[in-house]
Write a structure and sequence with these properties.
There is one protein chain. The protein is mainly alpha-helical. It has one domain. The longest helix has 21 residues. The model has no long low-confidence stretch (mean pLDDT 84).
């Protein structure tokens, strides 16, 4: 490895600029995954709520007959 490459890698590893943007990106990704796990997915609130509302709709249709 050449000296200029080594110097570049040393400067790159010491450089702290832009780190907060990466941290915010990781935080946003973690929040998005958490929300998807709660609301989305196969067992999330969204699926359960859809099933409950389907039951209510069926009961209302039966009562209206």
């Amino acid at each position: 490895m050449s000296e200029s490459t080594k110097a570049f890698l040393r400067r790159f590893m010491r450089d702290q600029s832009g780190i907060s943007a990466v941290e915010y990106g990781l935080l946003a990704a973690g929040i998005a995954v958490g929300l998807w796990a709660i609301v989305g997915g196969d067992t999330g609130i969204g699926t359960n709520l859809q099933a409950v509302l389907g039951d209510v709709q069926a009961d209302l249709a039966t009562a209206a007959e």
